[in-house]
Amino acid sequence: MMERPFFSLAKSKRIKPIDYRSPDGKLWVNVSGNPQFGMATIWDADILIYCASMLADMARRGVNDVPRKLHLMPYDLLRAIGRPTTGRAYELLAQALDRLVATTVKTNIRADSRREATFSWLDGWTQLVDERSERSRGMTLELSNWFYEGVMMTGGVLSIDRAYFDISGGRERWLYKVARKHAGGAGEAGFAISMPTLFEKSGAEGQYRRFKFEIVKIAERDELPGYALTIESPPDKREPLLRMRRRPGDLLTKPNVKGKGEGARHQPPVAPVEAQSAEPAVNVAALIRKSVTRLATKASAGEITDTTLAQLRQECPGWDYQTLHAEFRTWVEADPERTPANYQNAFVGFVRRHHERNKHLLR
Q: For the region Disordered, what residue ranges are annotated (predicted)?
């Protein structure tokens, strides 16, 4: 999934199918989108990355019978993949889930003894709402068997830099995945690929000339997290090469496992796939100080910390904490005298009282 064209790289609706075949003719991928919803995009794939990280975390903790149907809170998902938690963000999330269900993939990759595998990324999704209170109780996502097996296989997942979710361009996002897959453990020389081959692997719409022009501009900007891009023009080649190298001091150094699966960034309660750090201790300490500073700011600036969420899930399970937090913040901001000395403790108390009054509605 990190190097083959499984997703549209454009934010606009794509109906034109992707039809890819490897240069040796052994591997092929065909992706078609539903005319109503369009094809799943590389931004929609962030949801699969989050699901992959949940599965990998459960497997790492020794959970028996890791489920293919996941229950999660939309608020946690949006935060983990770097999206806002506004009403519009929830609408866009629903649209992304519809595209993941409606997109059809046919491929012989990991088809085993079969000639091909046909699947959608999600077999279905459900929004859970309490009938009495009409509050969200989260959602369930049923992963396709092909995707589930790929994540659960040994070496099926690679970790990715959390800065990946800040990449705005579809081509840049896809280039990061290619670099992570091939240049992650390729040493100082990195990994080079010819531009025509890169174009075929991307599944991008449009002409090759336009694609090459955009890749050259991306390489000139050289802004991919963790990887440097350079254009090379070998004298014996008509078309240029794109070389990808790991940047010195990159925090995500070579992983302990190798595979073709999606990566997972670290966002509590989801843990990253095994990765070791080669960053000097002084820089790691600086990063820790920055994290502590961010947490301290969140603790007093009207945001819910991950520690608070974990506490509430244990003490007051079943509620949409994002909705309750919006109500709490509205109440606090209505009167300056209500500003709490400890924002997190005040919100925990608010949810506890709500849970005590309304827990019968969850039955």
A: 250-276
Alpha-carbon span 43 to 41, nearest angstrom: 5
Cβ atoms of 343 and 302 closer than 8 Å: yes
Rounded distance between C-alpha atoms, residue 195 and residue 211, angstroms: 9
Residue in 90, 108, 102 with CA at minimum distance from that of residue 22 = 108
Q: Is 167 helix (H, G, I), strand (E, B) or coil?
A: coil
- What is the DSSP-derived secondary structure letter of residue 38? B
Inter-residue contact 234 to 241 (CB < 8 Å)? yes
DSSP code of residue 107:
E
DSSP class of residue 190 equals -
What is the C-alpha to C-alpha distance for residues 29 and 348, in angstroms, rounded to an integer?
49
pLDDT digits (tens, 9 = 90+) for 152-194: 887 777 888 889 999 999 999 999 999 988 886 667 788 899 9
Q: Closest Cα partner for 252 from 286, 271, 278?
A: 278
Does the domain at 161-254 match CATH 1.10.10? Answer given as yes
Q: Are strands 104-107 and 28-32 parallel, antiparallel or unpaired?
A: antiparallel
In a 13 Å sphere around the CA of 138, the CA atoms on its Cβ side amount to 15
Rounded distance, CA 246 to CA 261, Å? 20
- What φ, ψ does residue 150 adopt, rounded to 5°? -65, -40
The CA-CA-CA angle for residues 66, 123, 166, to 5°, reads: 80
Q: Which residues pair with 275 in a beta bridge?
A: 255
- Contact present, 175 and 218 (Cβ < 8 Å): yes
CA distances from 8 to 4, 71, 353 (A): 11, 26, 46
With tokens 């945001």, the residue in question is 303
User: Which tens digit of pLDDT belongs to each residue from 188-231?
Assistant: 788 899 999 999 999 998 899 999 999 999 999 999 998 999 99
Entry field: residues in the chain: 363
CA angle 164, 196, 43 (to 5 degrees): 25
Give the distance from CA 124 to its chain's centroid: 18
